[in-house]
């Protein structure tokens, strides 16, 4: 084989591999594949536990409001916040007892954290209103136009991403 043919075949093979890897057809390494499998297994276990605890919680907490919707700041608790361990804890091989203890602790603090986040969001909104009051009419108009342009760019980006 000539060097040109060998190079062409090597380039074609690496391009094909990268295409499959980026498309998610192939895991980039075994650790990622194992992590995906572990995550799926954990989700199934959590869903099973959540069904049982949801019935108990519904009966016990009929008068309590449900979890707050996503705040404007973009921060939101995960779907099942009480059944997730903190970052980096998943790699520590926690026992089920340790996980349950962590879930109870998180459940104890979650309402307080949500309340403080709501207060912080309210303060940010109040601050922004006061800051905007400092602006002149032409500045307020320019600010509104800049915000509209940014919203349009986000919509276009989301539409382009959805089209892919």
List key phrases describing it.
164 residues
Q: Layout of SSEs?
A:
Layout: H1 3-23, H2 30-60, H3 96-134, H4 137-163
Textual characterization of the structure:
- By secondary structure, the protein is mostly helical.
- Helices cover 72% and strands 0% of the residues.
- It contains 4 helices and no strands.
- The longest helix has 39 residues.
- The two termini are 39 Å apart.
Beta-strand content: under 5%
Average pLDDT confidence is 74
Largest sheet: none
Contiguous uncertain segments of 5+ residues:
48-72
Beta-strand segment tally: 0
Distance between the termini: 39 Å
Radius of gyration: 25 Å
Assembly context of the chains: single chain
Counting H and I runs of at least 4 residues, what is the number of helices?
Answer: 4
Given the C-alpha coordinates, what overall shape results? Answer: flat
| N-to-C SSE string, H for helix and E for strand | HHHH
Quick gist of this model?
The protein is mostly helical and 164 residues long.
